[in-house]
Automatic annotation (TrEMBL):
GO terms for biological process: DNA transposition. This is IS110 family transposase. Residues 10-155 form the Transposase IS110-like N-terminal domain. InterPro entries: Transp_IS110-like_N, Transpos_IS110, Transposase_20. It comes from the Bacteria. The lineage of its organism: Bacteria, Bacillati, Bacillota, Clostridia, Eubacteriales. It comes from Caproicibacter fermentans. It holds the Pfam family Transposase_20. Residues 256-341 form the Transposase IS116/IS110/IS902 C-terminal domain. GO terms for molecular function: DNA binding; transposase activity.
């Protein structure tokens, strides 16, 4: 018989407009009784839900993470209850035997036996910082999309600036585009006024690249795109100042993370916004790496491993750590990371090697935050040395070689 971990607990089936709560109370004889009640998701009714739980002496709550609808309930119950947020795959009931009341009762039943794996939910201030950093990431994606659309406008207009400029939105290229948009029907005959110090393309190559035909519709579309890009850039600047202000209270932890190779200021803030600053919520660094999606899956059946791919977890932190890893392997002042990458790349390829380096950085960050110590590269140099039990004397080494079939002659002793 399964052990009852939570004698009084509540399971919740969360929806957009309402929530079904079911309190499971188990007496010392092991008999469980259930109380179910429906509440709307308006704030006043959620407060009545908190009072109802308190009246029934229920402090442990488990709810299914349904979109963003669980957040208002979590916010109201956070001060008074211990909330466990479960992924739907852990609490989903059998198809064909599902109702809202049965779902809430099922969640309460499996939760009272502690069979639900709760998701990591950082404190409220970290959640706010995470929301801002993720929005900044979205704005960056919007800017990239607008750049691609602007490039498409130039391509369909037979303007090949991307063939002569490494950055189509650089200083010289932007000046040429601005000149074209002033009068699309007028041809550019001299580009010497647009030359900058770092330009590698000759005037003839640039003239050949801008020899196109931009219609009025494409010109207006490009103006709208550029205006939107300027607006996005202004939004990003305002958001960055807000992120820096919000992250100011975590300045000591940010400075510690900045000691890790390949990590810059905004990257450090982004990492802390995802994992928080309290590492006690993760038992080991392996748990953190698994949560971030940087460890192979366990998918074995009948003694056969079906896949060892990394999981899809860590949709925000994993790309960020990969970018930091790409930066770290280029830095020659960090040979412990670069040598590790090169040795793995020979055997497993670039992609698996860069994921291993990202995991290496996250493991270092975990220990840095847990021990409150800066990054120490000497620890990696010590780990490269063979263990003591593998050290052998010269005579033992000769004996091992002879057992392998090698003919070993001892060097003549010098007088």
């Amino acid at each position: 018989m399964l052990r009852i971990v939570y004698p009084t607990c509540c399971g919740m089936d969360v929806h957009k407009s309402f929530v079904i709560a079911c309190i499971a109370s188990t007496n010392p004889q092991g008999v469980t009784t259930y109380k179910s009640k429906r509440f709307s998701t308006f704030t006043g009714d959620l407060r009545r839900l908190a009072v109802w739980l308190a009246e029934n002496d229920c402090r442990d709550v488990c709810m299914e993470s349904t979109g963003k609808y669980w957040i208002p309930i979590y916010n109201i119950l956070e001060p008074t209850c211990k909330n466990v947020l479960a992924h739907p795959k852990y609490v989903k009931a059998i198809h064909g035997k599902k109702t809202d009341k049965k779902d809430a009762k099922w969640i309460a039943d499996i939760f009272k036996h502690d069979l639900v794996s709760g998701s990591f939910i950082p404190p409220a201030d970290i959640r706010q910082l995470r929301d801002l950093v993720r929005y900044h990431w979205k704005l960056t994606n919007f800017t990239t999309g607008e750049k691609n659309r602007a490039q498409n406008c130039l391509t369909v207009s037979n303007i090949k600036l991307d063939d002569v400029f490494s950055d189509v939105f650089g200083k010289a290229s932007s000046a040429i585009i601005e000149h074209i948009l002033q009068d699309p029907s007028k041809k550019i005959k001299d580009v010497s006024a647009f030359r900058t110090k770092g330009m590698k393309a000759s005037n003839e190559e640039v003239l050949a690249a801008v020899d196109g035909e931009m219609c009025a519709e494409q010109a207006e579309k490009l103006r709208i795109i550029r205006s939107h890009m300027d607006g996005l850039e202004l939004c990003k600047l305002n958001l960055e100042s807000l992120i820096l202000f919000t992250a100011e209270k975590y300045l000591p932890q940010i400075n510690l993370v900045l000691t890790v190779p390949g990590i810059q200021s905004f990257s450090a803030i982004g990492i802390l916004s995802e994992i928080g600053v309290d590492m006690s919520v993760f038992p080991t660094s392996k748990h953190l790496c698994s949560w971030a999606g940087l460890t192979p899956q366990n998918n074995e059946s009948a003694g056969k491993k079906k896949t060892t791919r990394i999981s899809r977890a860590g949709a925000y932190i994993k790309p960020l750590l990969v970018q930091c890893a790409l930066c770290a392997i280029r830095a020659k002042q960090n040979p412990e990371i670069r040598n590790r990458y090169l040795s793995l790349k020979k055997r497993r390829g670039h992609k698996k090697a860069i994921i291993a380096i990202a995991r290496m950085l996250l493991t270092a960050i975990y220990n840095i935050l847990k021990k409150n110590e800066p990054y120490n590269p000497d620890l990696y140099h010590q780990s490269d040395k063979p263990p003591v039990h593998r050290e052998v004397s010269a005579d033992e080494a000769i004996f091992i070689l002879q057992r392998q079939g090698y003919l070993v002659s001892k060097p003549a002793s010098t007088p």
